[in-house]
Amino acid sequence: MNKIITISREYGAGGHSIGKQVAEKLGIPFYDRDIVRETVKASGFDPELVEEEQEDVSRTNSFFKTICSASSIYYNDTQEAIHDVQRAVILHFAQEGPCVILGRCADDILRQAGAECINVFIHADETHRAVRVSELTGCTNATELQKMIAKKDGSRHTYYNHYTGKKWGDSHNYHMTLDSGALGYDTCVKLIVEAAQAED
Amino acid sequence: MNKIITISREYGAGGHSIGKQVAEKLGIPFYDRDIVRETVKASGFDPELVEEEQEDVSRTNSFFKTICSASSIYYNDTQEAIHDVQRAVILHFAQEGPCVILGRCADDILRQAGAECINVFIHADETHRAVRVSELTGCTNATELQKMIAKKDGSRHTYYNHYTGKKWGDSHNYHMTLDSGALGYDTCVKLIVEAAQAED
């Protein structure tokens, strides 16, 4: 077994928790925001710009467009440059050995590079996700929770489509997609571990 | 464990073989074309019409339209009626106890009925599928294989969209989607069995 596991996930579907548990069970590193920090260190970009980049391509662009129309071109270039460094960091992690990488289009980056990996997408219905986001944020207003979920998913969708040209959540982009609401987090962890440990 | 497993699948992705093995491992019935035969028996429809119905909604409609423009309306009604009986048969099988049901929009029919089930979609890249279809049909012409795969997938896509209003292969319609080309049939069988046996 020498596989890298990438996890894409809808907001509130438990992808972070599932990915972390998978990494623990397999005894391999788990990379989430570490990637961003590593990007900052390696690239020398303004840390604030890198933090701003995140997944919200559309929002940050419009923000910059509002401030100064000329700077949106500059920001687009900067954003692409940050993404390039992020890609290099992901490839570096993958070369180090088996690991779990969350988000950041790692599935597409590693596929393009021909790396052997298992690309997983975690989703769940709105109710399961609202309950989870409520637990994470303390918000108990259903309308607010729906808005938060829609906004975060929209950002991830835009980010993924922008950098891969593919549809986020389309089963064909992943080796395995799992409904964490119906199956439960523990079952999702077991299934991913089982897939990672399977002989080819 | 008292779950029904539905399997939707791309042509040549091994869904039939995987579904059959899952049923054997769990010691539960496997329903494929049996559903059609049961429909014939239960409905009293012309067996040829029922066989014709299959998944090729677009082709049969255009065929009937070519023969006689008025009959396409009749055929649409007949087709819907056949689908209704098929739905009743699927619900009957599901009520009998745990089983594996292949295709026929069983995932959507059982979801609508509130049945507890695991809906699986099996897909694979074109090369894996071409090799499989070659093995199944004896055809060794790559262009012919591509045409056969595209035609069969188109039919299943149209059939699924027509009766469910949803996109065939969209991860959100399934509890689990698996790339049988990358993961291998045996791993797919193991993962589905594991999901079926998991405690909620």
CATH overall fold name of chain A? Rossmann fold
Sheet having the most strands of chain A: 5 strands, parallel
Residue share in β-strands of chain A? 5-15%
Q: Please name the CATH architecture of chain A.
A: 3-Layer(aba) Sandwich
Structural class of chain A, please? Answer: alpha/beta
Oligomer: homodimer
In helices, the fraction of residues of chain A equals: 55-70%
Full CATH superfamily name of chain A: P-loop containing nucleotide triphosphate hydrolases
Number of domains of chain A: 1
Separate helix tally of chain A: 10
Query: Can you list the strand order of the major beta sheet of chain A?
Result: 2-3-1-4-5
| Topology pattern of chain A, helix = H, strand = E | EHEHHHHEHEHHEHH
Tertiary shape of chain A: globular
Which CATH class of chain A is shown? Alpha Beta
Largest interface: A-B, 24 and 24 residues
Rounded to the nearest angstrom, the distance between the terminal CA atoms of chain A is 9 Å
